[in-house]
Design brief:
Strand content: under 5%
Largest sheet: none
Number of helices: 9
Order of helices and strands: HHHHHHHHH
Number of strands: 0
Helix content: over 70%
């Protein structure tokens, strides 16, 4: 089976996820900048973080499937699992922003990011198992230290929010810093994949 339908379906789902998130933002009731900050500021920050997260997954997904020749049932289900995890992002983002970054909503948001990261690694592994370790994707990914590092930071963030300064905010801010650090790490497209795409395109 070709990858076109899977990519088109995934693009549509990710576009809907981003649209749902922006609909959660409330317009300010007043006409001053302070009204915007008071009523929408926290939600806008949470939306920005989640928007970039979803954008990173779209970018990585787009590049990865340039190196995939065909898909089977395992790839389809692994891709659906990733989309399911990402489809929860609007919910966890809204809860986190409405609570103004309280501990439990931040923990749940971090768990959402963690399961999405694991789901992406599973999808990647299923594809490499299908295509072979010497395939274009297998060679580009290698040991995938960057992907595993992202999972590690998600775990550190969740554990920090759960265990550090439970009566205060220190653990929550450490968790948010971990999530932002992952964004900074991935905001530049994966050069390994981009290089392999160029080589694959030239070879093709």
């Amino acid at each position: 089976m070709r990858t076109g339908r899977l990519e088109a379906f995934s693009d549509g789902v990710l576009a809907i996820i981003i649209t749902i998130m922006v609909l959660e933002l409330r317009a300010p009731e007043g006409h001053d900048l302070s009204d915007l900050v008071h009523s929408t500021g926290v939600g806008l920050l949470a939306y920005l973080l989640s928007f970039v997260y979803v954008g990173i997954y779209w970018n990585a997904h787009h590049h990865m499937f340039h190196l995939v020749r065909r898909v089977n049932g395992g790839v389809l289900w692994a891709n659906l699992a990733l989309l399911f995890c990402l489809s929860l992002v609007p919910l966890t983002t809204a809860w986190m922003s409405q609570s103004r970054f309280e501990r439990i909503p931040v923990v749940v948001y971090g768990l959402n990011l963690l399961v999405a990261a694991v789901a992406y690694l599973v999808l990647q592994s299923v594809i490499i198992r299908q295509e072979g370790p010497e395939s274009s994707l297998g060679r580009a990914v290698g040991r995938d230290l960057k992907g595993k590092m992202s999972v590690t930071f998600d775990v550190v963030g969740v554990l920090s929010a759960l265990t550090i300064d439970r009566s205060g905010r220190v653990g929550v801010w450490i968790a948010l810093a971990c999530f932002v650090l992952i964004v900074i790490t991935w905001v530049v497209p994966d050069r390994r994949i981009a290089r392999a795409v160029r080589e694959y395109g030239t070879a093709a």
